[in-house]
């Protein structure tokens, strides 16, 4: 099948902003190569190949040290491309997998050994067919026993309906892309307030302040998204994560320059302390806790 969205930027620029030593790109993907790791038959889009070598080259180019690779819907619950990338990373990548309800404990243990530390539940209707919440809850209860956490992807209009489910999940919950706020409605909109209240009231909920390129109405340099991310970074400095979202699946309007995305970071995390928390301390606590304990 032919790719049906823009290819990733072939030559991203060097960012002006220097990320702190040990920075983690906590949301990115690998796709294929399709000839080795075919895409899932049930996928809603077909990406271009975005293999691990390109991801690791981008990591080095942008000055990052590590990646958290998130299983995207185009690979369904076939985590082989993800596991292959983790194995090739020399311990510099951890994974977020998608699993089926009939996954065995042996398979979960195998994924854990490979470096997977979370599962992702996706509620974005254009990306997946719905999975009953009871099934997701059963999966959550099983994976937290392996010390994993849950990553959820949903859009702001679905937050109220999802809240009871989100609050019923055990362990740590990470929300992708700020819960996809309606940027045009501004930071005072009820739905963004509701999301902040959810985080204020539940200290187990974390958020990725990622994807200005997806959320923007105005386009680069993403002035309209910055206040959303900055609000969350300043309110919840020890529960925020940042990622490139490379290779930016499904982007049809414009393809971001990943160097320019890195240059958004000092605008959303304006002090060295906030930058270190966002890029190093928080992702290390969640994905490499054993290394943090050794360092401290
Ligand atoms: C992202 C965002 C998107 C795609 C996926 O799993 C996916 O296919 O998450 C999207 O289209 O918004 O996190 O990469």
Automatic annotation (TrEMBL):
Domain called Amidohydrolase-related: residue spans: 24-287
Signal peptide as annotated in the record: none
EC top class, as a word: hydrolase
Chemical reaction(s) catalysed: 2-oxo-2H-pyran-4,6-dicarboxylate + H2O = (1E)-4-oxobut-1-ene-1,2,4-tricarboxylate + H(+)
GO molecular function list: 2-pyrone-4,6-dicarboxylate lactonase activity
Gene3D superfamilies noted in UniProt: Metal-dependent hydrolases (3.20.20.140)
InterPro entries listed in its UniProt record: Amidohydro-rel (IPR006680), Aro_Compnd_Degr_Hydrolases (IPR052358), GLI/LigI (IPR047874), Metal_Hydrolase (IPR032466)
GO biological process: 3,4-dihydroxybenzoate catabolic process
Name under which the protein is recorded: 2-pyrone-4,6-dicarboxylate lactonase
Organism: Roseibium aggregatum
Taxonomic lineage of the native organism: Bacteria, Pseudomonadati, Pseudomonadota, Alphaproteobacteria, Hyphomicrobiales
């Amino acid at each position: 099948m032919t790719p049906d969205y823009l290819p990733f930027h072939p030559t991203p620029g060097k960012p002006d902003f220097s990320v702190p030593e040990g920075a983690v790109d906590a949301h990115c993907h690998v796709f294929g190569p399709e000839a080795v790791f075919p895409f899932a038959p049930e996928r809603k889009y077909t990406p271009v190949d975005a293999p691990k070598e390109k991801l690791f080259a981008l990591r080095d180019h942008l000055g990052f040290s590590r990646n958290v690779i998130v299983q995207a819907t185009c690979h369904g619950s076939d985590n082989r491309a993800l596991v292959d990338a983790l194995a090739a990373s020399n311990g510099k990548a951890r994974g977020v997998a998608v699993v089926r309800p009939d996954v065995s404990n042996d398979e979960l243990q195998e994924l854990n050994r490979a470096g997977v530390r979370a599962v992702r539940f996706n509620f974005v209707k254009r990306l997946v067919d719905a999975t009953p919440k009871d099934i997701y809850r059963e999966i959550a209860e099983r994976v937290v026993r392996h010390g994993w956490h849950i990553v959820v992807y949903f859009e702001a209009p679905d937050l109220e309906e999802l809240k009871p489910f989100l609050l019923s999940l055990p362990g740590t919950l990470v929300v992708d892309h700020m819960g996809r706020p309606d940027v045009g409605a501004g930071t005072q909109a009820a739905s963004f307030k509701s999301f902040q209240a959810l985080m204020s009231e539940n200290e187990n909920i974390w958020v990725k302040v990622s994807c200005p390129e997806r959320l923007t109405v105005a386009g680069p340099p993403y002035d309209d998204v910055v206040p959303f991310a900055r609000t969350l970074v300043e309110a919840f400095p020890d529960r925020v994560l940042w990622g490139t979202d490379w290779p930016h699946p499904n982007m049809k309007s414009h393809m971001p320059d990943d160097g320019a995305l890195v240059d958004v970071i000092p605008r959303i995390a304006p002090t060295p302390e906030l930058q270190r928390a966002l890029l190093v301390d928080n992702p290390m606590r969640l994905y490499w806790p054993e290394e943090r304990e050794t360092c401290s």
